[in-house]
């Protein structure tokens, strides 16, 4: 038999951009729903995304807080809450990386990729679900903050802006985590790697203590890293402090992260088959 | 010659794929007529999974061509995805979701309406005997139930061609039988099936054609009976604890079977194909061994195994070397760890050459077994 005797059917006509976009959106929403259902049913996920931030609030508010001198209206609890929200948002990306790595190792991405769905929906569905998850977590943490004495000092608009900025920080971290999760693939390595970059960025920042209380060499790092810019902006929005250059530096850093890591994550996803 | 291609649900020609230095596929040809079952048999790392991944559009071949229902898996991948179902080695279900939710979500991803997704999920739960468990999370399911749910998920899109990659690996015997009932009913419904397996005994079940893959090449094809006849029927096997007496033992059983006995000098395992002689051969062997006074352990007759087919077809044991291994395979499982590297090699003797391509499909290459063997030993 020769190849000539085989009839290959002509490729199907492309259904067109409109239809494909509609499917991509519907697939994204379907996977978003799936991911949120999974999140709500795994006690460990709920613990790390909700209980852990609550424990941080209580610990810093009542254990360390008395020893930390700050100069903001309302005292340490008002200083603390924007920092906790930023840290919570950043740490939420563990879930993104672990979930994507799991999906690869369990073969469920193979199932999805062999189906006539939009391939991008695995990533977009993950990020949309994680954004919603972040928003819910942050609102819970704000509620806990109110219970222990935190109060917004600057009106509703800036308060909303602060929450939005926290969510954007979280999404930026999720994009980085999506890339690392897809590139590393092994669940445990992903967790270990997450700690390596997230711990220094969040704790060596203005999140929990005034940077002036750190030794000089550490101040040099803490004063010039993106998490500090973003948390200072959030704090200024919440408490009505002068924002200065922090807002622009935050926007530039966040934009840079999206510009670099979205293509990297997409490429890692395509390669991960 | 019949032109299979017009009826072929799967048609593959000269497919190759390498991962770095590892040549997972070295030129595979297949033709599976519509509505039939092709079983792809081979050890871990033979290239089975790589072939399935190419046919299901998950991997791109380096060269060659593959058509599913006449559509090119590379150039027309979106159309192929609408025609196929895939159930892989590990259950690709979401354990935190219920059986029903799993199937409904898959339905939505096939762009069925909400209503249709719901009814399709209900149909499949009914058919796969999962109605009682439909509202429980899949985490609570047994291994067999998870596999059934996974298979159900691969059918949501009502595929014309279904790919099952080792559907029974890791299942207990009862679940395995249940799986076969389900697969049999699919075939009766007219679905074309391609199944991979490591187990020869499974190949008896409902395969129209069997293709044996080793080191990325199709080395034989035919029905289960045809393949087994090449091994020479049942196999008599025993172990000689005193390694120094192996050659005496081999001499003692030299006449009982149809083929040459062969012995593994390291493990002391001796086996010989006895064809249809069955218990007569067993009695002869006992007498022969008793006469020379060689002590043995575990003397028994058994059905030919994948190892025997591999020895007969290729001259090497199934898991002897993994050098052609790993085409996209995640984690070897199952049959490893029984090191047979020291086993004597038996030639192709006893398997008549030129058995040729059987009609009806499966093996349709111009390449003969001996060519395949030559190209392998040359590499």
What would you note in describing this structure?
- The complex is a heterodimer of chains A (273) and B (379).
- Chain A has one domain (20-271).
- The model of chain A has no long low-confidence stretch (mean pLDDT 89).
- Chain A starts with 16 loop residues before the first helix and ends with a helix.
- Chain A has 273 residues and is mainly α.
- The longest helix of chain A has 29 residues, at 156-184.
- Helices cover 74% and strands 0% of the residues of chain A.
- With 379 residues, chain B is of the alpha/beta class.
- Chain B has 12 helices and 14 strands.
- In chain B, helix 3 (99-109) crosses helix 4 (114-127).
- Chain B is elongated and about 75 Å long.
- The relative contact order of chain B is 0.16.
Q: In angstroms, what is the radius of gyration of chain B?
A: 23 Å
Any low-confidence stretches of chain A, pLDDT <50, length ≥5?
Answer: none
Identify the strand order in the major beta sheet of chain B: 6-7-8-3-9-10
- How many DSSP-defined strands of chain A? 0
Please state the overall shape of chain A, judged from the principal axes of the Cα atoms: elongated
CATH topology of the largest domain in chain B: Rossmann fold
| Oligomeric assembly | heterodimer
The share of residues in extended strands of chain B comes to: 15-25%
CATH level 1 name of the largest domain in chain B:
Alpha Beta
Element string of chain B (H = helix, E = strand):
EEEHEEHEHHHEHEHEEHEHEEHEHH
Domain count of chain A: 1
Report the total helices of chain B: 12
What about the largest sheet of chain A?
none
Mean pLDDT of chain B: 77
| Name of the CATH superfamily of the largest domain in chain B | P-loop containing nucleotide triphosphate hydrolases
The run of helices and strands of chain A is HHHHHHHHHHH
Largest sheet of chain B: 6 strands, mixed
Q: Largest interface, by Cβ-Cβ below 8 angstroms: which chains and how many residues each?
A: A-B, 34 and 48 residues
């Amino acid at each position: 038999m020769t190849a000539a005797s085989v009839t290959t059917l002509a490729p199907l006509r492309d259904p067109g951009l409109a239809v494909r976009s509609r499917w991509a959106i519907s697939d994204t929403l379907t996977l978003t729903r799936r991911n949120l259902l999974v999140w709500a049913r795994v006690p460990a996920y709920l613990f790390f995304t909700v209980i852990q931030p609550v424990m941080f609030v209580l610990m810093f508010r009542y254990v360390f807080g008395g020893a930390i001198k700050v100069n903001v209206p309302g005292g340490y609890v008002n200083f603390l809450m924007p920092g906790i929200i930023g840290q919570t948002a950043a740490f939420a990306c563990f879930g993104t990386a672990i979930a994507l790595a799991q999906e690869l190792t369990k073969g469920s991405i193979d199932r999805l990729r062999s189906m006539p769905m939009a391939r991008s929906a695995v990533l977009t569905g993950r990020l949309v679900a994680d954004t919603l998850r972040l928003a819910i977590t942050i609102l819970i943490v704000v509620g806990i903050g109110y219970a222990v004495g935190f109060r917004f000092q600057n009106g509703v608009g800036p308060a909303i802006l602060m929450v939005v900025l926290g969510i954007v920080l979280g999404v930026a971290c999720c994009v980085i985590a999506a890339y690392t999760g897809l590139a590393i693939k092994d669940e445990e390595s992903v967790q270990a790697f997450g700690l390596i970059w997230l711990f220094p960025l969040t704790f060596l920042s203005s999140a929990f203590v005034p940077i002036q209380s750190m030794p000089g060499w550490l101040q040099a790092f803490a004063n010039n890293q993106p998490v500090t810019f973003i948390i200072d902006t959030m704090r200024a929005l919440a408490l009505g402090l002068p924002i200065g250059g922090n807002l622009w530096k935050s926007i530039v850093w966040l934009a840079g992260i999206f510009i670099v890591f979205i293509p990297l994550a997409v490429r890692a996803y395509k390669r991960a088959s | 010659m019949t032109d299979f291609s017009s009826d072929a649900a799967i048609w593959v020609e000269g497919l190759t794929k390498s991962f770095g230095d590892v040549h997972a596929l070295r030129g595979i040809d297949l033709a599976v007529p519509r509505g039939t079952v092709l079983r792809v048999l081979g050890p871990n790392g033979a290239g089975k999974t790589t072939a399935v991944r190419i046919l299901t559009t998950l991997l791109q071949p380096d060269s060659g061509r593959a058509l599913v229902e006449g559509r090119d898996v590379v150039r027309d991948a979106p159309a192929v995805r609408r025609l196929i179902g895939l159930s892989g080695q590990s259950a690709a279900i979401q354990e935190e979701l219920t059986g029903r939710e799993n199937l409904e979500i898959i339905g939505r991803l096939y762009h069925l309406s909400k209503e249709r997704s719901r009814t399709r999920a209900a149909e499949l739960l009914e058919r796969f005997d999962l109605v009682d468990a439909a509202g429980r999370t899949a985490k609570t399911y047994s291994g067999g139930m998870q596999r059934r749910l996974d298979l159900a998920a691969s059918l949501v899109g009502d595929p014309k061609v279904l790919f099952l990659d080792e559907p029974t690996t890791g299942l207990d015997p009862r679940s395995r039988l249940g799986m076969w009932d389900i697969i049999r009913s699919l075939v009766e419904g007219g679905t074309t099936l391609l199944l991979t397996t490591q187990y020869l005994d499974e190949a008896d079940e409902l395969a129209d054609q069997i293709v044996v893959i080793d080191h990325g090449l199709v080395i034989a094809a035919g029905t289960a009976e045809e393949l087994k006849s090449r091994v020479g029927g049942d196999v008599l096997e025993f172990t000689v604890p005193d390694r120094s007496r192996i050659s005496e033992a081999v001499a003692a059983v030299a006449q009982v079977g149809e083929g040459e006995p062969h012995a593994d000098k390291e493990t002391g395992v001796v086996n010989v194909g006895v064809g249809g002689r069955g218990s007569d051969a067993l009695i002869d062997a006992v007498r022969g061994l008793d006469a020379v006074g060689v002590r043995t352990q575990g003397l028994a007759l058994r059905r030919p195994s994948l190892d025997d087919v591999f020895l007969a077809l290729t001259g090497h044991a199934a898991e002897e070397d993994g050098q052609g291994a790993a085409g996209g395979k995640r984690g070897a499982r199952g049959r490893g760890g029984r090191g047979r590297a020291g086993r004597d090699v038996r030639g192709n003797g006893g398997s008549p050459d030129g058995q040729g391509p059987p009609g009806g499909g499966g093996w349709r290459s111009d390449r003969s077994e001996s060519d395949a063997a030559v190209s392998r030993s040359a590499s």
